[in-house]
Design a protein that fits this description.
- InterPro entries: GH3 (IPR004993), GH3_C (IPR055378), GH3_M (IPR055377).
- This is GH3 auxin-responsive promoter family protein.
- GO terms for molecular function: acid-amino acid ligase activity.
- Pfam families: GH3, GH3_C, GH3_M.
- This protein is an alpha/beta fold.
- The chain folds into two domains: 374 residues, ANL, N-terminal domain (Rossmann fold); 130 residues, GMP Synthetase, Chain A, domain 3, CATH 3.30.300.
- Helix content is 35%, strand content 21%.
- The strands form three sheets. Strands 6-3-7-8-9-10-11-15-14-13-12 form an eleven-stranded mixed β-sheet, with helices on both faces. It has a four-stranded mixed β-sheet with strand order 2-1-5-4. Strands 16-17-18 form a three-stranded mixed β-sheet.
- The longest helix has 17 residues.
- It is globular.
Length: 511
């Protein structure tokens, strides 16, 4: 009998019973008021007159009317750069102790996103909410005695003057509470190794020493780590070395594209739990089984707004137009794609993090990540979002009985001068590229009426090439960095796509 595990499970269940479920709209009103009060004496708060907003009869409406939208480039150019010039009280009181480095899915240069002590605490609280929610998943008591593999970026944060820099997963892991450290793997020493390949090698070497019950991390890198452990120990699947593995907390991207290839590494099913931890904060978590939807965390230092994800509101660089309408939480509709905006305890204001979401259950405030604003392919009017691409690729997996964990697409003219969508599908399974092209085209026509119209006019067709999935990881290694929060871009412009194709030829991955 797992006595200690039974005690932990009982405490979690009691906490869930005693913790009242707040009213999300009221929670959001309270969060915004606290944010405005806290930051009213900052340079940003004075510039946009937070004092006046706080005196308004409708604070949320006045806030939306008084402050423009910001993406990273705009807020960094106008405000955050001042932190690096020695200023304090810029968009949040004091100076941030951390900056989260994020290359996102575009470009080589890292974004440097302020992370306040309040944000570190908010992420910690969200993590506790996630642990508490495990009581809803019918896990046995002994699960709560097992260790958790958190596969993030290095916890060896770099000192830069009076602050430290690293990816958000490394910042979070470096601040884990003392009581959790005995459960946390790969442990502080291995977690500090900066090079991804070296860190994964150490994980593989030590894997037999650990009794892993749960995994946490971005799917693409988690899959690569599991393959390394399996290969190092000459296993058939990961459960031969971690027989008690029962939970995988996925994060950062939609899990479905990786589901089939991930399951191939398992000896038995595991409970997949989605989380939404971005460089800017912990936004949502899955609280119940039998869904991939996540509940927005509405009472924990982040205020949410939503912009309808429509072509007329999206600029070519993925930012939103100045006249794009904003929707508040109580007015959203289910199954409609929105661009998500956040204002946070780190001094991000009406900030576009670049993700698109949809509400699957408005009453529960449950959402799904549907893509990125920059992953919106609208050349010649196809209006193709990444969630439609993911769905189409999943249909290919089922139709051809293959695994396609990664893909990338671009729209450009072919040798005949006509526009095509050029796709590279990452798979180790054999399939005919022409048959894949035809099926992919048909799937997209069925799923998207705008794509179907474009195909009857300016869009000539689809061209598919299959390549080794490892090429996507190597591309990230060359252009950004392996592991951590790094995600592969799904849609490229012509210039970036030319670099990608040159890379593949240099690697002899294509003819």
């Amino acid at each position: 009998m797992a006595i200690f595990g039974s005690i932990i499970k009982s405490v979690i269940e009691l906490k869930e019973t005693l913790t009242p479920e707040g009213e999300a709209v009221k929670d959001q009103q309270d969060v915004l008021v606290r944010l405005l009060k806290k930051a009213k004496d900052t340079a940003f708060g004075k510039h946009y007159d937070f004092e006046k907003i706080l005196k308004s009869d409708n604070i949320r409406k006045t806030f939306a009317e008084s402050i423009p939208y910001f993406d990273y480039n705009k807020i960094d150019k106008e405000w955050w750069h001042r932190y690096h010039e020695g200023e304090e009280n810029v968009t949040w009181p004091g100076r941030p102790p951390y900056f989260a480095l994020s290359s996102g899915t575009t470009g080589k240069s890292s974004k440097r996103i302020p992370v306040s002590d309040e944000m570190v605490e908010a992420i910690r609280k969200a993590g506790i909410k996630q642990v508490s929610a495990l009581s809803n998943f019918d896990l046995p008591p002994d699960f709560f005695e097992k260790e958790i593999m958190m596969l993030g970026s290095s916890t060896d944060l770099q000192s830069a003057g009076d602050h430290k820099e690293g990816e958000i997963s490394g910042i979070s892991a470096s601040n884990i509470p003392f009581w959790f450290r005995s459960y946390y793997k790969p442990g502080e020493e291995i977690a500090k190794i900066d090079e991804w390949d070296d860190r994964v090698q150490k994980i593989a070497e030590n894997a037999k020493q650990w009794d892993i019950g749960a995994l946490s991390g971005i799917p693409s890198w988690m899959e690569l780590m599991l393959k390394n452990v399996i290969e190092y120990h000459n296993l058939n699947h990961i459960h031969e070395i971690w027989p008690n593995l029962q939970v995988y907390a996925s994060g950062g991207v939609a899990f479905e594209p990786y589901e089939k290839s991930f399951q191939a590494l398992l000896g038995k099913p595991v409970q997949v739990i989605d989380t939404y931890l971005a460089s800017e904060g912990f936004l949502a978590l899955q609280e119940r089984p039998d869904t991939h939807a996540m509940r927005l965390i509405t009472d924990n230092g982040i205020y949410f707004e939503f912009v309808p994800f429509k072509p007329e509101y999206i600029n070519q660089d993925g930012s939103i137009t100045k006249d794009a309408p904003v929707i508040m939480l109580e007015d959203v509709e289910e199954e409609v794609d929105y661009v998500i905006l956040i204002s946070t305890v780190s001094g991000a204001w009406r900030y576009l993090i670049g993700d698109t979401i949809k509400f699957t259950d408005k009453a529960k405030n449950e959402i799904r990540i549907t893509g990125r604003t920059k992953f919106f392919l609208n050349v010649v009017g196809s209006q193709l979002s990444v969630n439609k691409m993911n769905d189409a690729v999943k249909e290919l997996e089922d139709e051809f009985d293959i695994k396609i964990p990664e893909f990338v697409v671009a729209a450009k003219r072919g040798e005949d001068g006509e526009y095509y969508h050029f796709w590279y599908l990452g798979t180790n399974d054999r399939a005919d590229d022409e048959k894949l092209s035809e099926s992919l085209d048909n799937a997209l026509k069925s799923a998207n009426k705008n794509y179907k119209v474009a195909r009857s006019k300016a869009l000539k067709g689809v061209k598919v090439k299959t390549i080794d999935p490892n090429m996507f990881h190597e591309w990230n290694a060359v252009n950004k960095k392996k592991g951590g929060q790094v995600k592969m871009e799904k849609v490229m412009n012509e210039e970036k796509f030319a670099e990608w194709e040159k890379f593949l030829k240099d690697q002899k991955a294509v003819d």
